[in-house]
Amino acid sequence: MTLVAAVFGGSQGIGRAVASRFIRSGFSVAILSRNNSKREEAITELEKENAYSVGIKGSQCDVTDEKIVQESLKLVEETLGPLRVVVNCAGINLDRLLVQTVPEDINSIINVNLIGSIITSKIAARLMLKHKCGNIVNIGSIVGMKGNRGQAVYAASKAGLVGLTKSLAQEIGSRGVRVNLVVPGIIQTGMTENMDIEQVKNQVPLSRIGAPEDVAEGVFFLATSPFITGEVLIIDGGLHLNR
Ligand code: NDP
């Protein structure tokens, strides 16, 4: 039987690379995101890259809406089979000094990054508890561990994922479900396109910024390593050592 993975925020950037990594290892993959055309484009590209894969599906889903997340994962199970892996890559950043941050932006960041992960983890956990196995991987950020000027709310939303991951891991480990957190540094995606890459590279011991595939490798490792749960895996080329 083909194993099934669902990737929230799988239409681009890190999520798309995660979807590709699982497809290459023979998983059927569901890609869940808000923008339909962006997601369809990603699915077409993934199908071209993986000519022999038939198990790529997509559906519209906003991680901030519990009912929609529940319906989406139910649909994934009906069309592809029991969920083995759920990865939440959906995230936004609206960087600004805290004193200048408006309430709407605070709500959006916390809703998508923190509450979205709480919702997706909860719904995924319920389904996986029924199967008595499964893996949830959340995506944090190195700024959630170290903080960063101009990213106080984003950092707070990502720091919350450490507590979420470690608590849920303890709640459901004995029932065969593992929960882990990948913490990327600076990764080349739409989210970082306005950064001064040359300046950032100088702070990274490995002298480059990350590729989405670097993060996908860590996600795949955690999702398929049978005795790891509640773990926080930093994938940042050593950036945290210098900050
Ligand atoms: P991108 O902006 O490239 O992709 C974000 C993805 O999330 C898109 O697929 C987007 O699709 C989806 N998304 C956003 N909001 C929602 C929502 N409410 N519901 C469902 N899907 C949503 O970002 P990255 O790939 O760079 O980031 C992926 C994750 O990694 C994020 O959590 C980010 O915080 C984290 N991260 C990124 C780093 C980086 O340097 N790039 C560093 C550290 C962490 P759509 O808009 O269609 O919904």
UniProtKB/TrEMBL annotation:
Pfam families: adh_short_C2. Transmembrane segments: none annotated. Pathway: Lipid metabolism; fatty acid biosynthesis. It comes from the Eukaryota. PROSITE patterns: ADH_SHORT. Signal peptide: none annotated. Keywords: Oxidoreductase. Belongs to the short-chain dehydrogenases/reductases (SDR) family. This is 3-ketoacyl-[acyl-carrier-protein] reductase beta subunit. The lineage of its organism: Eukaryota, Metazoa, Ecdysozoa, Arthropoda, Chelicerata. The gene is LOC106473288.
